C-alpha cells in the first residue's frame, strides 16, 4: 500500500533536474537533511533516507515517514567557439526532483524494514531557438523514478548491515534535435524527436555501518549499476522532405543508457550532543558509459543507416562532501555543507545534453520540529560549475564533432522542503 | 528592513546560502560574456570594402547567379561582420525581387531509383533567358561587390569585355557611357576610395579547361591578350596580371586579403560520376574504356584516343581518371550504339546544326559502334579529365598560386590559402557545430547542384576562413558566423 501511494506521488511530481548536485546526469537530491549537509549520509543515520545513502546505517535510523521535494533552478549559458555573437541562454526550466521514505521497526530493536522512492537521475534542458548546437540537441527531458525496499539489521550495537532491492520503476526520455536537411520552401530543417519509456530494471544497494561509540560512525555503501533500456520508443520526424522519405523511414528506436554504480564511504563525528560533522567520498562508475547508441527500425539518415553512435567515453568520477548540523534548540536544527564534484565528462567530450564540469557546491538547511512527532526540513543548495570550453580542434582530434565547440557555464540553485513523521 | 537595504553586495552570496537571497539569485544568469574579446578591426579599416573576383565572389551557385546566391555571397557575409567593427555599407548588383531568378539556376527535383539526383533548371527572369537573348537588365550604380561570373585573370584588361557580345554579367554592370571599359578600369574606379579589399581571381584561368575535360583545341595557346575559352592561361601572363591588379588595389594603401586557387579535381563536379562508372563497369566485368583526349580532331590512329582501365577510374579506393558531372546523363549509354552523347557535345559548341556530320567525320566517330568501349565511338574528351590533363591543371594551379602568393607578400597582404582549405574539405570534410559537412555531391552540404560552386553554407565557411586570415594578419577580433545558419542543398 505504501509503495502504491508513493508511486502516485511520483506520477504527480515526476521530474528531474539538470544534473544538479552530482556529476553527469545524477540528481541525488535525496533527503532534505542530507541535502542541507552537502550530500553526506554514508556515515550518518539521521532518518529513513539512509536507505538511499547507506542501507546499513538504516538499522540505527529512527522509524518514520518522510517526503520532500526540491525545485532546481538551473542557469546555463553557452558561448560559441570562434563566433562570438554573445552568449546563448537556455530556456531555463525549473524541475522538481522528489524523494519519500518510510521506515518501520521496533524503536530500540535490531532491525528495520523500509520503502523509498526517489529520482537519482535526470536532466531537462531546452536550448534557445536556433542555437549553434541545434543539430546536436535542442531539447532533452530524461526522467526516472526509482523505488526501493530495504532491510537492515544491527548485528551488534556497534555494527549493522543492510541491503535494498532497487527498481527503475519509471523512466522516460524525450530527446529532440534538428537534422541538417532542409526541404525546398521550408524555413526550418528536419527535426527529430525520440520519445520512449524505460523498461523496468532491477538493481540493489548494500551498506555496512560501524559505530564504535556515540561520537563516531563509519559507513561504507555500494549502489549497483542499472542499464536503463528503452525499446520501441517513437521516432517523430517533422519537416521531412518528400524525396527523402525512404532515407528517413524509421518510426521506432531502441537505446540503452548505462547508469553508473556508486561506491561511498562516510564518517560521522559528534563532538558534542549539539554538533554533528559528516564527511563523504563517492566514486561514481561512469566509465560504463562509453557510447550512446540508438538502433532504428528503419533508415535514419540514408539507405541502410539504421543506427547511430555517439562517443561519450565518460570516466569514473570522485566527489567529496563535508557537512555539519548544529542543534540550536530542541526544536530547531541548522545545517550547512559543501562539496566538490569532479566531472565524469572528459575534455573535448562535453555534450549539450550534459554540459558537465567540475563543480563546487554550498548547502544550508534546517529542521523545525512541531510537537514531538512532526517536523519540517528545509534545504538550499547552490552549485557553481567551472566554466568549461572546448574548441573545434579538440572535437576533431577526439572524433566528437557531433557536438558543438564553445564554452558552457552553469549555476544551479535548489531550494527544497520536506515533512516528516516519527513513528 | 532598513538594515537589509544597506547590506553590502559582498554579503549577498552568504545570505543566498542561507536561503534568504533566493529570489535574487534565481534571477541571475551566469555570465560568460565578460571573458570574450570584444569585436575589433585591429589595424584594418573596413569603412569601404570592395570585393574583386569571379563567380565565387558574386555568389554564383547551382549553375546560376540569382538573388538568394548573391545575398549569401562570401563578400556579403564578410561585410555583415565588418559592420560590427565600423564597416560601411556594402552594395551588390542584386537582382530585384521581381527578377530574383537571375540567370536561372538548377533545382533538385528528386532522385532516380538508384539514388542519383535529378535536377531541373529554374528559368531566369532577369531579362536574358538564353545566351543569345537580350542582355540582363542593367545595374550601373557604384558597387562594392565586383564579382563577375566567368572572368579570368587573363580577361581583366580586355576592352569591351562587358560589351553586348562579351561577358553578360560584366555587361550588366558596365556603365552605358563606357561600353568598352575593362574590368581592370572598373576596379580602379571603385578602389579609389576603398580601405579594404578581397581579391579572389584566377580560378577560371584553369577551371574552364578542367570542366571541359581538356577538350579545347590548341589548349597550349600563345595568345597573351585573350586566350580562347576553356584553355589554360599562360603563367607569365597570369603573373603579370596578378601583380597589376594587386598593385591597383593597394595603390591607395588599402589593406586586404588575396585568395589563391583551390585544386579543382577535388570538387564534386569531378568526383561524383567516376565511382558510379567504376562500380558499374566492375559489376559487368568490363575491363576498360576508350576515351578521346585533348581537343584535336583526327582518326583513331592520330593519337587522340586513349585506353583507360576500369581500375584506373578514380574512386575512394584509388585510380586517376575523373569523369565530369556533365557525363552523368550519358554514362548509362555505354555499350550501346548511339550518337546521343555526340549530339550533346556538338550542341555545346553553338555551331550550326548542319555541321554535325562533318564534325563526327573530323573525329572519325562512327555512332553505329558501341559507345565508350570502341575506338570508333569513344567517350568524348569533354567527359573525362584524364591523368595527363590533370597534370596540366596541377602545374598551372601551382604556378598561379605562386604568383598570387608572391604578389600578396610583396604588398604585405593577408593571404587565404583556399587551396589548402579545400584540400582539407575534400579529404576530411569540415564539421561545423555538430554537423559533418563534406565535399560529397548533394549530401555534403557544401557544394551546390553544379558541383563546382559552394552552397550558402560553403560560402559561409569561406567567409569564416577569410575572417580567421584577417584576424591573424591585422590583429582584428572579427567574429565568425554560424555556418549552419546558411543552407546546404534544399530537397524537394
Instruction: Report the C-alpha radius of gyration of chain A, rounded.
Output: 22 Å
For the biggest sheet of chain B, the summary is: 5 strands, parallel
Number of strands of chain B: 14
CATH class of chain A: Mainly Beta
* Percentage of residues in strands of chain A: over 45%
Helix content of chain B: 25-40%
- The secondary-structure element order of chain A is HHHEEEEEEEEEEEEEEEEEEEEEEHE
Q: Kindly report the average pLDDT value of chain A.
A: 89
Coarse structural class of chain B: alpha/beta
In total, the number of domains of chain B comes to 2
Unreliable spans of chain B: 1-28
The level of helicity of chain A is under 10%
CATH topology of the largest domain in chain B: Rossmann fold
Multimeric status of the protein: heterodimer
According to DSSP, the number of beta strands of chain A is: 23
Average of pLDDT of chain B:
89
CATH topology call of chain A: Porin
CATH class of the largest domain in chain B: Alpha Beta
| CATH architecture tag of chain A | Beta Barrel
Q: What's the number of domains of chain A?
A: 1
Amino acid at each position: 500500500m505504501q509503495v502504491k501511494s508513493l508511486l502516485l506521488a511520483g506520477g504527480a511530481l515526476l521530474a528531474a533536474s539538470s544534473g544538479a548536485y552530482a556529476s553527469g546526469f545524477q540528481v541525488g537530491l535525496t533527503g532534505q537533511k542530507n541535502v542541507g549537509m552537502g550530500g553526506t549520509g554514508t556515515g550518518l543515520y539521521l532518518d529513513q533516507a539512509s536507505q538511499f545513502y547507506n542501507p546499513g546505517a538504516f538499522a540505527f535510523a529512527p522509524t518514520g515517514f518522510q517526503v520532500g521535494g526540491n525545485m532546481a533552478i538551473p542557469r546555463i549559458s553557452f558561448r560559441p567557439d570562434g563566433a562570438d555573437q554573445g552568449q546563448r541562454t537556455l530556456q531555463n526550466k525549473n524541475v522538481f526532483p522528489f524523494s519519500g521514505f518510510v521506515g518501520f521497526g521496533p524503536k530500540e530493536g535490531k532491525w528495520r524494514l523500509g520503502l523509498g522512492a526517489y529520482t537519482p537521475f535526470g536532466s531537462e534542458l531546452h536550448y534557445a531557438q536556433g542555437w549553434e548546437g541545434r543539430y546536436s540537441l535542442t531539447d532533452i527531458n530524461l526522467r526516472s523514478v526509482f523505488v526501493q525496499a530495504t532491510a537492515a539489521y544491527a548485528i551488534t550495537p556497534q555494527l549493522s548491515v543492510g541491503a535494498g532491492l532497487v527498481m527503475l520503476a519509471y523512466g522516460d526520455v524525450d530527446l529532440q534535435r534538428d537534422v541538417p536537411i532542409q526541404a525546398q520552401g521550408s524555413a526550418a530543417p528536419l527535426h527529430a524527436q525520440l520519445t520512449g519509456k524505460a523498461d523496468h530494471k532491477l538493481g540493489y544497494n548494500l551498506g555496512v555501518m560501524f559505530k564504535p561509540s556515540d561520537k563516531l560512525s563509519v559507513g561504507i555503501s555500494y549502489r549497483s549499476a542499472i542499464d536503463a533500456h528503452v525499446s520501441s520508443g517513437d521516432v517523430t520526424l517533422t519537416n521531412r522532405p518528400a524525396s527523402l522519405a525512404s532515407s528517413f523511414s524509421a518510426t521506432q528506436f531502441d537505446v540503452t543508457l548505462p547508469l553508473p554504480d556508486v561506491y561511498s564511504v562516510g564518517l560521522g563525528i559528534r563532538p558534542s550532543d549539539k554538533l554533528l560533522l559528516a564527511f563523504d567520498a563517492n566514486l561514481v562508475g561512469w566509465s560504463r558509459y562509453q557510447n550512446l547508441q540508438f538502433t532504428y527500425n528503419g533508415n535514419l539518415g540514408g539507405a541502410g543507416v539504421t543506427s547511430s553512435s555517439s562517443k561519450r567515453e565518460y570516466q569514473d568520477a570522485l566527489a567529496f562532501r563535508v557537512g555539519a548540523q548544529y542543534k540550536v534548540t530542541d526544536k530547531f536544527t541548522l545545517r550547512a555543507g559543501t562539496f566538490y564534484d569532479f566531472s565524469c565528462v572528459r575534455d573535448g567530450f562535453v555534450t549539450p545534453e550534459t554540459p558537465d564540469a567540475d563543480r563546487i557546491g554550498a548547502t544550508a538547511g534546517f529542521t523545525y520540529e512541531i510537537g514531538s512527532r512532526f517536523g519540517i526540513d528545509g534545504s538550499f543548495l547552490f552549485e557553481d560549475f567551472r566554466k568549461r570550453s572546448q574548441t573545434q580542434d579538440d572535437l576533431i582530434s577526439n572524433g566528437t564533432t557531433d557536438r558543438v565547440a564553445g564554452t558552457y557555464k552553469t549555476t544551479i540553485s535548489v531550494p527544497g522542503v520536506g515533512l516528516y513523521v516519527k513513528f | 528592513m532598513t538594515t537589509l537595504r544597506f547590506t553590502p553586495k559582498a554579503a549577498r552570496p552568504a545570505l543566498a546560502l542561507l536561503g534568504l537571497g533566493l529570489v535574487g539569485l534565481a534571477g541571475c544568469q551566469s555570465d560568460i560574456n565578460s571573458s570574450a574579446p570584444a569585436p575589433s578591426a585591429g589595424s584594418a579599416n573596413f569603412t569601404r570594402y570592395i570585393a574583386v573576383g569571379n563567380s565565387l565572389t558574386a555568389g554564383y551557385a547551382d549553375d546560376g547567379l540569382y538573388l538568394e546566391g548573391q545575398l549569401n555571397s562570401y563578400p556579403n557575409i564578410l561585410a555583415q561582420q565588418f559592420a560590427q567593427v565600423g564597416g560601411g555599407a556594402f552594395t551588390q548588383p542584386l537582382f530585384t525581387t521581381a527578377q530574383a531568378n537571375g540567370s536561372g539556376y538548377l533545382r533538385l527535383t528528386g532522385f532516380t531509383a538508384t539514388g542519383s539526383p535529378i535536377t531541373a533548371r529554374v528559368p531566369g527572369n532577369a531579362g536574358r533567358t538564353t545566351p543569345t537573348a537580350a542582355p540582363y537588365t542593367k545595374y550601373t550604380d557604384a558597387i562594392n561587390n565586383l564579382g563577375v561570373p566567368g572572368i579570368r585573370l587573363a580577361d581583366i584588361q580586355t576592352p569591351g569585355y562587358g560589351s553586348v557580345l562579351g561577358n553578360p554579367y560584366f555587361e550588366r554592370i558596365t556603365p552605358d557611357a563606357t561600353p568598352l571599359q575593362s574590368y581592370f578600369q572598373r576596379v580602379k574606379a571603385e578602389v579609389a576610395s576603398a580601405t579594404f579589399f578581397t581579391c579572389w581571381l584566377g580560378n577560371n584561368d584553369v577551371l574552364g579547361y578542367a570542366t571541359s575535360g581538356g577538350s579545347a583545341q590548341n589548349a597550349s595557346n600563345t595568345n597573351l591578350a585573350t586566350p580562347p575559352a576553356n584553355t589554360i592561361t599562360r603563367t607569365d601572363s597570369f603573373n603579370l596580371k596578378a601583380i597589376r591588379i594587386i598593385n591597383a588595389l593597394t595603390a591607395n594603401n588599402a589593406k586586404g586579403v588575396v585568395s589563391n586557387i583551390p585544386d579543382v579535381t577535388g570538387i564534386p563536379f569531378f568526383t561524383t560520376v567516376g565511382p558510379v562508372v567504376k562500380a558499374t563497369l566492375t559489376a559487368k566485368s568490363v575491363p576498360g574504356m576508350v576515351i578521346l583526349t585533348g581537343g584535336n580532331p583526327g582518326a583513331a590512329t592520330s593519337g587522340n584516343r586513349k585506353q583507360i582501365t576500369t581500375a584506373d577510374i578514380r574512386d575512394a579506393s584509388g585510380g586517376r581518371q575523373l569523369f565530369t558531372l556533365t557525363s552523368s546523363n550519358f554514362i548509362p549509354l555505354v555499350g550501346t550504339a548511339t550518337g546521343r552523347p555526340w549530339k550533346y557535345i556538338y550542341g555545346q559548341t553553338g555551331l550550326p546544326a548542319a555541321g554535325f556530320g562533318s564534325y563526327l567525320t573530323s573525329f572519325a566517330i562512327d555512332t553505329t559502334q558501341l559507345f565508350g568501349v570502341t575506338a570508333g565511338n569513344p567517350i568524348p574528351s569533354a567527359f573525362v579529365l584524364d591523368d595527363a590533363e590533370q597534370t596540366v591543371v596541377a602545374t598551372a594551379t601551382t604556378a598561379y598560386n605562386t604568383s598570387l602568393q608572391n604578389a600578396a607578400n610583396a604588398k604585405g597582404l593577408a593571404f587565404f590559402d583556399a587551396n589548402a582549405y579545400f584540400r582539407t574539405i575534400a579529404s576530411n570534410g569540415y564539421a561545423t557545430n555538430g554537423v559533418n559537412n563534406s565535399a560529397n555531391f548533394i549530401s555534403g552540404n557544401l557544394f551546390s547542384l553544379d558541383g563546382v560552386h559552394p552552397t550558402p553554407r560553403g560560402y559561409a565557411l569561406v567567409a569564416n576562413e577569410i575572417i580567421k586570415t584577417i584576424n591573424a594578419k591585422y590583429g582584428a577580433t572579427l567574429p565568425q558566423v554560424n555556418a549552419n545558419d546558411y543552407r546546404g542543398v534544399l530537397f524537394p
